[in-house]
Each structure stands twice: as C-alpha cells, then as structure tokens.
Amino acid sequence: MSIAEQKLLSQSVTKSFFQYLLPTLIGMMLMSANIVIDGIFVGNGIGSVALASVNIAVPVWSILISISLLIGIGGGTLYSIAMGARDTNKAQRVFTISIVLVTIVITIIGLIGYITAEQLAHLFGANADTLHYAVDYLQIIFLWAPVIAWEATMSIFVRNDGGPQLAMAGLIVSALLNIVLNYWMIFILEMEVTGAALASVIATAVGLLIYTIHFFKKDAGLKFMRPKWRQDDILTVGKLGFPNFLSEAGTGIFVIGYNIVLSYYAGTTGLAAFSVINYLHTFMFLAFIGIGSSIQPMISFYFGAKKHESIKDTVKIAEITALALGISFLAIGWFGAGGLVSIFGVETEGIRQFAIQGIKLFFIGYLFMGMNFIYMTYYQSIAYVAPSIGITLFRGVILLIAALIILPLLFGIPGIWLALPAAEGLTAIFLVIFARQGVMKRQWQEQGY
Length: 449
Prior knowledge:
By secondary structure, the chain is mainly alpha-helical. Helices cover 85% and strands 0% of the residues. The chain has one domain (8-441).
C-alpha cells in the first residue's frame, strides 16, 4: 500500500486536509517568495526600471508553469484516481508519460523563446527603458525552461503520492538558496538582472534534486516504466490539466492586461507601481493555489475510492480556510500597504503613493479568490472538467478583460485596481448561489476517466 493510500484510507478528512495543507501552503508561499525575493533584490540593487523590466518578463514564468500544470495536474489527478481505484499499473504509466511529455514540449518552447526573446519582450509591454533588462532575464529563463518545468511537475506528483512534506522541503531549500544567490550575484558580482534570473533557476534546480529523494522510499508509488503511448491516457491528462493551464495562462493575461492599461493611463510610474503589487500578488495567488493543490489529491483519491461524503467534508473545510486566508490578506494589505511598498526599495513618492492606493483596492479580491479556486479544483478532481474550465475562463479572462476596459472609464485609476476584485467577486457570488448547493447534494457518477 502506497503512502497516500495509508493516509487517506485510515485518517479523518480534517487530519488529512491539514497534513496536505500546511506543507503545501508553506511550500507555495516559499515558491512565490522566490519571485518576490527577485523583486526585492532587483528593486534595491538595480532600481525601479529594472524592477519594471523583470515584471514584464513574468508572463514567461506563467507560460512555462501553465504547461507544467497542464501535464502535471492532469497526470497527478489521473494518478490519484487510479491509486484510489487500486490500479497501480495505470498510475505508474500515467506518471511516466507525464514526465516525458513535459520534457518534449518545454524543450521546444525554451528553444523558440530564446531565439525570439526580444520580440516577446516587446509583446509583453517593454519600452525603450525596460527592453534591455527584459531580454536578459527572458533568455536565462528560456535556457533553463526544462528544469523549471520538471521541478513544477515533480512537486505535484510527489504531493499526490503522499509526500507533501518533501515537496515543502524542496521549496524551503530553493527559497533560502535563492536569497543567498540573489545577494551574491546582484550585490557582489554586479550581474544585474541576469544575476537575478540565474539565482532563481539555480535554486529551482536544487529544489528538483530534493524531490528525487522520494524515489528512494520503499513505499513510494512513483516509479518510471517503459513509456506506453496510449492516446486515451494523453487526452485525459490534457483534459484534466486544462483548467490549471488556463488559470496559469490567465496570470499571463492578467499581467499583460494590467501592463497595457497602466502604461496607457499612467506611463512608467504606473508600471513601476504595478510591479510591486504583482510581486505581492504572486505570493497571495500561490497561497490560494496551495489550497487547491491540497484538496486535489484528496478529492481525486476519494473519488476513485468512492468515498463521497469525504469529498463533501473536504470542500467544506477548504471553504472555511480560504475565507480566513482572504480576510487575513486583506487586513495585511489595508493596514500594512506602506510597509509592503518600502521593502521593494521604492523611493519615488509618486510611485509609492500609486502602489499604496493600488494595494488597498486590489487586495479586496482575495476575499473571493479562494472560493473560486476550490470549486475549480473540485470539478477538476472528480474528472468533470467543463465547469472547471468555465470558472477559470470567466474569472481569469472574460470578466477580467471586461473590467480592465470598463472600470477605468468609470472610475479612472482606482478602476484599474478594482478590476481583479470585480472579476473574482462576481465569479464567487455566482458559485455560492448556483453551484454550492448542487455540489453538496451531488451524487457522483463515474466520468469515464
């Protein structure tokens, strides 16, 4: 019996939830800390223009991670369902195919991205001031793209195989190493933005090495086997992972959309202020992804094992946790906006006041974001993907773009900051009114995974 089976079949839902949540939440926050640390060191060691330049390159992370999540979450969900149904051979086959797929796809993207880095920088909103820094950062990230993808994908499978503590350990080591390398490369070696990018990818590579420890555990379910390319496995992995792909790709749309709108309404000052908010948002955003990542292995396993009441209990406790986290983040933003801006070394008063106003309004969205991620993950985890895709598209693309167009026309700059809260809030209200009751009364049917 694998590690995951031992835990989920013998423990209460509450105990299992927190055994997954705490290391996953800490791990996700440390993962986001890697990006925030880049911003702190770049802002203090190089300046606001470099900080804005790195922010322009952030969509590349979203592209790489979105594809990793497409394959990793899709494969991880199918892996957990198969393990819950005691089909070990299928679980190991899915794991092997997922790693091979992510390697092939990301290697191709990395090569193309490296060659076209300057064109991509222009596409993502770079101007004459930021282009040089943005290209330097992009080229390093694309060169190391497979390592970034392996780390993201492997952490998902290790977590699904009952190893959330090891996944957390890899991210802790990576985050601490990133701090040391950022300081050394930016302040000692004076490598500027190139140093920040190298620090992130080297730290990521070390985190990946930590995950390999899982394979030496005698009761580990993860094992490589000779790849068997079954079309139904590949299609199901893609289908189950597609909501996460859209969600992470939506992050890229979010950054590009905000960059374009702020560049139009507020110029470089607006871009610099948003770079601070976006670094902070990465931290909060990944915390809510952490809640989704915690319940996904549980719901998928319970679905495979036909433990339907356990699924409902998992959703309920996740809702309470997400609301508490959202209230905490809003309070931090409302009362601590000035301090949050200061840590990025912003000295220009115009940028500082712009960012403080933005934080107080933008953070309202965190009251609703957790609820949206819970239901997106719930539908995905029981292999009912259509509602999950709908939630992701509406909150992250359709409503967000509409809000970025309409709200600035009505309210000016504050309307820009309120675009994300409006999109998240409308989606959450819809889910509470129309989806939650059905979820709690749902009688599950096999989805033909």
